[in-house]
Design brief:
The complex is a heterodimer.
Chain A (H helix, E strand, L loop, with lengths): L19 H11 L4 H10 L17 H8 L10 H11 L2 H5 L15 E4 L2 E4 L16 H10 L14 H4 L4 H11 L13 E2 L9 H8 L13 H13 L3 H4 L41 H10 L10 H9 L6 H12 L19
Antiparallel strand pairs in A: 1-2, 2-3
Chain B lengths: L5 H20 L11 H4 L6 H26 L9 H11 L21 H4 L1 H24 L2 H22 L2
Helix pairs in contact in B: 3-4, 3-7, 4-6, 6-7
The chains are: A mainly alpha, B mainly alpha.
Chain lengths: 353, 168
């Protein structure tokens, strides 16, 4: 199948099983006694339309959010495009690769940026446009970018593209993702140059960076854990790449391994990123239910609704998790080794104002 | 005086009550009658008072949201309170910009300068939230579970949308 989206303007809502629209459809069939309340709760909140109106940088319109909606994906579909759409969702491709998901610039057509100590990195056009996007890429090219951090010409990619995590993805998921990315509407939008410091602008510098900070790895299930835990581990570590933001970085931009998932006050976009390990300085007092709810609608246990980058990630990625995957991710995260790292709360998870 | 919301009126009334009780307990040495609110509330409250007040309102909002979620989504057996939570949220959120008068930036506050420098956008987002809260209140009147859940989710989204741009 091909995905109808920003360019075609048509709709294929009916195909979606896991998105909010199908949830709404389910609801209409389930409305009734109080007994339905519990079941409905977890279904309906899978990505609310209003969340679609939040983005990292750049303007957007209501029409955009509809196009984005259509691409919720389904991990259990027989169609690789549907499965790939789900991987794209949970991998959070949208937030970095869509500046203005509008009719003008298009879904996944690049242009959002991420601020780092090395400068601003722009998300690239990953629509299948032959000239401006990745339409000329083979599946091998996508595999090389995700697994090795190299472009089709062999050049090293900046790790703002978190191949350090994506390298762990399964062959099947990468193949599905390729099918999906080749099926979205191509958008003729030229990539801009990264706006970065001179010393970072020399790609040759990436070779020693990678030697220092990058290891190719593949997710291997832990035989001592059950399928749910392993699914959560896979999604958290490889696809959703949570550690990339929730871990402090060294001066060269590598992850501080001892503090993996323990948060940082110097996160991307200048944000303070919380410790998500179950330590007193992290989310020790969050239950499984609390974390699932946060991933789904962004509400913290005390009833606060975060802003900042995580609001975008919830809107465009984690709110699309299936119930099973949301449970699995929450369970895995709550099983992490507790790490003591008090992060000053200067941004989105602090006290109400 | 600058009391603007039912919640703050209630708080003021409670405070007067406590004050009155305190005076009573102290015996009859002080023969003066209890002051009225008009007499004891400063006509020109300092910034700290404004910040304390709006943080209190926002904490109240969080509390009502958390309680509503527990009932609506997790089945805490307090359905009869949903209307109260809905109407209270609507009252608390009816005029958010009033909580942030010009000049009420404070080092203890997470309010961003854009609240005042981009007041139109702030007002627009605040209006979205007020509307969403009113819709939740209406949905709790109606009692339809799916309508309440949708309204609750929409209200939460509007909270996050405003925090994103206007809260540190």
């Amino acid at each position: 199948m091909r995905i109808s989206g920003t360019d075609s303007g048509s709709s294929n809502h009916g195909d979606q099983r896991t998105g909010p629209l199908s949830a709404r459809a389910l609801i209409s069939g389930m409305v009734g006694g109080g007994a339905a309340l519990l079941a409905i709760g977890f279904l309906v909140l899978g990505g609310h339309p209003a969340y679609g109106a939040i983005s990292v940088h750049g303007p957007e319109t209501v029409a955009d959010t509809l196009a984005v909606w259509e691409l919720s994906g389904d991990p259990d579909s027989d169609d690789p495009v549907e499965r790939g759409a789900y991987i794209a969702r949970i991998g959070n491709c949208v937030v970095c690769h869509t500046a203005d998901p509008s009719e003008e610039t298009g879904f996944l057509a690049g242009g959002a940026w991420i601020e780092s100590p090395f400068g601003n990195f722009y998300g690239t056009n990953i629509t299948p446009h032959p000239e401006y996007g990745i339409g000329a890429w083979t599946e091998e090219d996508l595999v090389r970018s995700l697994r090795e951090g190299r472009g089709p010409d062999g050049a090293h990619l900046y790790p703002a593209f978190p191949y350090t995590s994506f390298t762990g993805m399964t062959d099947g998921d990468i193949s599905d993702l390729y099918a999906f990315l080749q099926a979205v509407p191509p958008v003729a939008r030229e990539n801009e140059d990264h706006d970065i410091a001179w010393f970072a602008s020399i790609r040759l510098g990436l070779a020693p960076w990678k030697a220092l900070n990058f290891r190719e790895w593949r997710f291997e299930p832990d035989p001592d854990q059950d399928d749910e835990w392993n699914r959560g581990a896979y999604l958290t570590r490889a696809v959703a790449h949570c550690a990339e933001c929730h871990t402090p970085r060294t001066r060269t931009g590598g992850l501080v391994e001892d503090l993996r998932y323990a948060g940082t006050e110097e996160g991307a976009d200048g944000e303070s990123v919380p410790n998500i390990t179950p330590h007193e300085s992290g989310i020790e007092d969050w239950s499984q239910r609390h974390l699932e709810r946060y991933l789904q609608i962004g509400m913290t246990p005390d009833g606060d609704f975060a802003g900042g980058s995580m609001a975008d990630i919830i809107a465009h990625a984690t709110s699309f998790l299936t119930d099973e995957d949301r449970q699995a991710m929450a369970r895995y995260i709550l099983s992490l080794e507790p790490v003591d790292n008090q992060v000053e709360d200067d941004s989105d998870t602090g006290e109400p104002n | 005086m600058r009391v603007r919301t039912p919640a703050s009126i209630l708080a003021a009334a409670l405070f007067v009550g406590v004050l009155t009780a305190g005076i009573g307990a102290a015996g009859s040495l002080n023969a003066d009658p209890a002051p009225t609110t008009a007499e004891w509330v400063s006509p020109d409250p300092d910034t700290e008072a404004l910040v304390d007040h709006r943080q209190g309102v926002m904490r109240a909002v969080s509390g009502h949201m958390a309680a509503t979620a527990a009932i609506l989504l997790d089945g805490a057996p307090f359905e009869e309170n949903l209307q109260m939570h809905g109407s209270t949220l609507s009252a608390l959120l009816a005029d958010i910009p009033a909580l942030f008068p010009e000049g009420s930036a404070h080092e203890e506050s997470d309010a961003r300068a854009e609240i005042w420098s981009d007041a139109d956008t702030f007002r627009s987002k605040a209006d979205d939230t007020a509307e969403a809260a009113a819709a939740l209140a209406a949905a709790t009147e109606g009692g339809d579970p799916s309508a309440m859940i949708q309204a609750f989710s929409a209200l939460g989204s509007s909270c996050g949308a405003c925090h994103e741009d206007f809260r540190n």
